């Protein structure tokens, strides 16, 4: 049965707006090697946690980046996610349970193509 008190409210767990902006720069560095730098900015709009629209998360901006050195059959990539170490709640569960988003993290990937 429909609850008239939520009619016209924002849908829970769905941001009204998001923005994704990315940029990539690739530069040859000699001997068949390419250096690539990529940055991604994501803006997640206000997110309501439940249908009554009484609890929400403010907008969140996240920055990720990657730097790669690539040859014909191999690559090494260093990456970082949530580089500004933004602390925010990623999820909400009924009963008021909030789940924190992952903090800033880094990694390295190695790739070899046969």
Fold and architecture overview:
Strand 5 and strand 6 form a beta hairpin. With 114 residues, the protein is mainly β. The chain has no helices and nine strands. It has one domain. A five-stranded antiparallel β-sheet has the order 1-2-5-6-9, with no helix packed on it.
List the helices and strands and how they pair.
Elements: E1 18-30, E2 33-44, E3 47-48, E4 56-57, E5 60-70, E6 74-81, E7 89-93, E8 97-100, E9 105-112
Antiparallel strand pairs: 1-2, 2-5, 3-4, 5-6, 6-9, 7-8
Low-confidence stretches: none
Biggest sheet strand line-up:
1-2-5-6-9
Structural class: mainly beta
Mean pLDDT: 94
Specify the number of helices: 0
Percent strand equals over 45%
Key terms for this structure?
single chain, 114 residues, mainly beta, five-stranded antiparallel sheet, two-stranded antiparallel sheet, 0% helix
